[in-house]
Design the sequence.
């Protein structure tokens, strides 16, 4: 079955890769229609990826529960959370899953009173870890590290209102750091990434890069 | 000071650091002091753009691409933008690329709308969430109604005055992505660069440096970065709220971080000097 595992996926990638590429450069109505159709397909695939992602996550945690790995209790919590949330979403306050999402009910309760506070807590904890890391590891050991440290201090103070109170030049200096050295470096990185994307895309289209086919 | 004492200071239990951050954040929230907020040029650009849209009675789209983890940083901006738009009778289409963001978008939209004389369908609409990211943006440019035929509640978009005339995102007068991830890039690459609508960005403070190159090229018209940017926007619309209030704890914690960095480095270098002196002393003792 090498044909289905290797040759067919490579042929599909080659064909649609080239179609997608030429559709950008050929201003013909039929190409435009084809491109529009492909975009709709991609959106469908994107939605399927969500289902696949959910399946992979649940499978991983099922195995952990089966093997009774360390911390498998968390996997049980994940499964319980999934079942309850999924059931609440499907039930949709008796309207069924095909109707628009109900504004009240169990799913919204879960969202408002569990998901929202939990999410906000996870993010706010970051501030504490950043403070600890800043104290323990942010050292001017080399000239480059010293430059980074001084820039960070200027930006940290210059981007907040207290910077204006300390000196009117601090926000100006912080803006300069963001708009000149930072933007220059970002441009370089973005160009590098873009060229990398082009190279990788060409490798996939022409079948040189085959990692996406999996290990079998 | 002895090296052992310095070592103790450098290895300070991080729970003390956490406690200092907590005291700083809570203390600053309750101590009464004023901080001046001066809007930056990029924030003013976004404000001016909405004023421009208001002058021609136009429509904007706000994509609230964030979830509860970044809500405290981004929701104040969404609220300020909605208040500005509603107060100036600008029609608003709201949506999200984030599957966990629809409820947040709906809440902020409803709360802001309740403050003004605006009606759902006539002055604003919530499209909700749809999968697709960049491809959804392309689809919205090709055929808006094909991408979204119904709103979040399942009602036909053709029945709403706000969306009736919108056939493509190119017809919109301004699109703003309030984003906590790479969705702002999707709007720029697949939206602005293809369909040429004016495009503004509101992002978390961490993402803001990524947007500067595009602000300079003109691909992005208006940038609001983090809670500080939202505070500047609130100042511009003369409705100080959560972002302005949040500037006090944020400023206090930023200053504490700077103190930590400076203090940590002073101890580090002082320890280094003492270490070198000790080594020099040992070498001199060994010499006959």
Sequence:
């Amino acid at each position: 079955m090498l044909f289905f595992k290797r040759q067919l996926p490579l042929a599909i990638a080659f064909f649609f890769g080239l179609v997608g590429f030429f559709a950008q450069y050929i201003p013909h109505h039929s190409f435009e229609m084809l491109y529009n159709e492909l975009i709709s397909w991609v959106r469908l695939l994107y939605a399927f990826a969500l289902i696949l992602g959910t399946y992979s996550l649940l499978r991983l945690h099922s195995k952990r529960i089966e093997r009774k790995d360390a911390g498998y209790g968390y996997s049980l919590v994940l499964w319980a959370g999934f079942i309850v949330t999924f059931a609440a979403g499907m039930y949709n306050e008796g309207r069924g899953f095909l109707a628009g999402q109900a504004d009240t009910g169990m799913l919204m309760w879960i969202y408002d009173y569990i998901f929202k506070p939990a999410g906000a807590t996870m993010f706010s904890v970051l501030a504490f870890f950043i403070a600890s890391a800043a104290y323990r590891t942010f050292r001017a050991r080399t000239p480059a590290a010293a430059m980074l440290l001084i820039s960070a201090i200027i930006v940290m103070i210059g981007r907040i209102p207290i910077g204006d109170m300390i000196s009117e030049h601090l926000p100006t200096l912080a803006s300069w750091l963001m708009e000149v050295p930072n933007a220059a470096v970002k441009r370089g990185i973005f160009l590098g990434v873009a060229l990398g994307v082009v190279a990788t895309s060409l490798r996939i289209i022409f079948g040189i890069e085959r990692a996406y086919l999996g290990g079998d | 000071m002895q090296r052992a004492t310095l070592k103790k200071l450098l290895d300070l239990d991080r729970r003390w650091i956490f406690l200092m951050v907590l005291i700083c954040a809570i203390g600053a929230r309750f101590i009464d002091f004023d901080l001046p907020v001066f809007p930056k040029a990029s924030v003013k650009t976004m404000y001016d753009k909405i004023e421009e849209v208001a002058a021609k009675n136009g429509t904007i789209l706000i994509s609230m691409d964030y979830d509860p983890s970044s809500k405290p940083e981004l929701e104040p901006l969404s609220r300020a933008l909605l208040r500005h738009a509603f107060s100036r009778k600008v029609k608003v289409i709201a949506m999200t690329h984030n599957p966990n963001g629809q409820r947040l978008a709906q809440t902020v939209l409803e709360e802001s709308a309740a403050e003004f004389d605006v009606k759902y369908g006539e002055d604003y609409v919530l499209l909700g969430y749809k999968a697709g990211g960049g491809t959804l943006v392309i689809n919205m440019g090709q055929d808006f109604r094909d991408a979204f035929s119904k709103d979040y509640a399942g009602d036909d978009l053709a029945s709403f005055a706000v969306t009736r005339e919108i056939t493509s995102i190119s017809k919109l007068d301004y699109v703003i992505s309030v984003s906590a991830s790479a969705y702002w890039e999707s709007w720029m690459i697949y939206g602005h660069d293809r369909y040429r609508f004016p495009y503004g960005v509101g992002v978390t403070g961490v993402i803001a440096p990524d947007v500067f190159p595009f602000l300079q090229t003109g691909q992005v018209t208006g940038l609001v970065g983090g809670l500080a940017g939202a505070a500047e926007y609130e100042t511009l619309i003369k409705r100080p709220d959560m972002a302005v209030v949040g500037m006090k704890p944020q400023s206090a914690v930023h200053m504490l971080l700077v103190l930590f960095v400076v203090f940590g480095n002073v101890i580090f270098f002082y320890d280094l000097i003492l270490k070198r002196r000790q080594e020099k002393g040992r070498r001199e003792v060994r010499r006959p």
About this structure: Chain B has two domains: 3-32+248-286, 41-240.
